[in-house]
Write the structure tokens for this entry.
Amino acid sequence: MNTQHFEKRLRDKERELESTLAGLEGEGRVSGEAEVRDSIDEATASQGTAESFEEGTLLSHTLEQVRDALRRIQDGAFGTCTVCGRPIEPARLEAVPWTPYCLEDQQKQDRKI
Ligand SMILES: [Zn+2]
């Protein structure tokens, strides 16, 4: 597999997410994780704050997945599902290079939520 192509896309995405998150933090809308947990009640009290809280959480989660995927490139494990170990569908990797799951396991994950 041509992991260089994906590594470049992942690094671009990592930079993009980092700068978006830094922007959110700069506006004082996303604080440290411990602090966020303490202020959840406050955050949910105001719809606007809750929305950016969720946005920041989602971005942090994606950033984590991007970094994990970059680690899997280093380990030579990139492109295989972390649950069942089967190859992830190429079209899926092309669309979401940081996904840790094959389509089937992604659907199982989605059902859990
Ligand atoms: Zn799988």
